[in-house]
Design brief:
2 domains, six-stranded antiparallel sheet
């Protein structure tokens, strides 16, 4: 929400002048003498014609409209963009949306050589505002264009509302009135906001840039602390925007390196078959099958992993195999068990299946040597005929490691992306284009 009063050409250096209010007699200091069109008495809040030597009363009130005091006192001085400015005016404005009134404050700044610029504050969020140096490009066929192009930068429509002036203090380069209304349309491209204001048939464009309360307090050397920023403002820069782009680039680089490593290690792996044999279990009543050992096979080369793969012709049945990979010379053993089961059928939804007839397990870091497998099958009572094949490969790539590494890389990306999306959702929830709400059914 920002102010867009008419701009004036750079003025000559003015002279400050002390005058008295014709209504209450209170002293008034004209800080932009010759440039101000209206001045407000801080005592009775009467609005006076600053260009009239007699200070003709333009608007007066039986009671003070508002006793709100500006956070930046009139007469405060500070340096913005390398230029010294003095606060000479203050107004409070508001809009009403769905029966709720939202108020914000605007400060008029003056420099005798640079002219006027403005500060706005809403719920602790600040903007440094100046009148546009060029006319933004919009689609004139639309009453409220969805976009505006200013100096090659695209701004998205955020909000259009009717703003009311609730109270004023100080001097203004136009004849301000309490109660005057203007249509204000804001377009955003964080950290900037482009505003179009239509008042009494006159259209004014201004450009604002987000500032923090800390920067304002430092600029004007104010005591105490600025009001805390509440919520997400329309052009507030996302604290995750830089992290968002950077973390995706980092993720892409590491993911690519991970893929290259996977390809390299896969190419380097021998995947050497060293043993394969088939076995059968006759059908009948089972009290468990006796264990047996396979023929001896040799593992050569460096210490590496060993894959033991099993395929069984089970159908609506299962087989469990207790394995032990044993070094013939040292007796060192690796014990593990694997189950193979497969079920299928038909129901009201059609055919279904679960399980698999194939299983593979990888035994890590097995030294070279001569080995054999001890196998002890377990089957269901009254089992059918089952045949199964056991094969052993030396030095196989393990892709699960790469999957875990990929997930580890992905977790921070997901967190930052989610937080960035939540920030933007909060921003646009206050606009004329709120995010689509999630519709939940009774069963969800």
């Amino acid at each position: 929400m920002s102010t867009n009063p008419p701009s004036l050409p750079p003025p000559p250096k003015p002279q400050a002048k002390a005058v008295n209010c014709p209504q209450c007699g209170a002293a008034i200091t004209l800080r932009a003498l010759g440039q101000a069109s209206a001045v407000v008495c801080e005592s009775c809040h009467a609005i006076l014609d600053a260009k009239d030597p007699q200070l003709q009363i333009l608007q007066k009130f039986e009671k003070i409209v508002s006793d709100e005091r500006p956070l930046i006192p009139l007469g405060s001085r500070g340096k913005l963009r390398g230029v010294d400015y003095e606060v000479i005016g203050f107004e409070r404005r508001s809009i009403k949306v769905d029966g709720i009134t939202y108020s914000w404050r605007e400060y008029l700044l003056f420099n005798p050589y640079k002219g006027f610029r403005y500060l706005s504050e809403y719920s602790g969020h600040w903007n440094d505002i100046s009148v546009c140096k060029a006319l933004p490009v919009v689609d004139s066929r639309m009453s409220i264009p969805s976009e505006a192009n200013y100096l090659g930068e695209i701004y998205r429509h955020f909000q259009t509302s009717d703003a009311n002036t609730d109270s004023v203090l100080g001097e203004f380069p136009w004849q301000v009135r309490v109660g005057e209304r203007a249509q204000v349309t804001d377009y955003v491209h964080p950290p900037r906001v482009l505003s179009r204001e239509v008042m009494a048939g006159e259209i004014t464009w201004s450009i604002g840039e987000y500032m923090t309360g800390h920067d304002i307090w430092t600029t004007f050397r104010l005591s105490g602390s600025p009001p805390e920023a509440i919520g997400v403002y329309e052009n507030q820069p996302s604290p995750f925007s830089e992290k968002f782009g950077g973390i995706w680039k980092t993720f892409a680089a590491f993911a690519l390196a991970l893929v290259i490593l996977m390809i390299v290690f896969d190419a380097m792996s021998k995947k050497e078959p060293v043993f394969s044999s088939s076995y059968q279990i006759a059908s009948g009543l089972s009290n468990g099958e006796a264990s047996f050992v396979t023929d001896v096979f040799e593992l050569t080369g460096r210490t590496s992993d060993v894959e033991v793969a099993t395929t069984a012709n089970v159908q609506n049945n299962w087989i469990y195999l207790n394995f032990a990979l044993i070094n013939q010379d040292t007796g060192q053993a690796w014990d593990f068990g694997r189950e193979i089961s497969y079920y299928s059928g038909y129901d009201s939804d059609g055919s279904w299946s679960e399980g698999s007839r194939h299983d593979a397990v990888v035994v890590p870091s097995v030294p070279a040597g001569k080995y054999y497998l001890r196998i002890e099958p377990e089957v269901a009572p009254l089992h059918p005929y089952i045949s199964y094949n056991v094969s052993v490969k030396r030095d196989v790539p393990v892709f699960s490691f790469y999957g875990l590494a990929f997930l580890a890389l992905l977790i921070p990306v997901i967190i930052v992306t989610w937080r960035s999306a939540s920030f933007e959702r909060s921003r646009w929830s206050e606009s004329d284009h709120p995010p689509t709400p999630i519709i939940r059914t009774e069963n969800s």
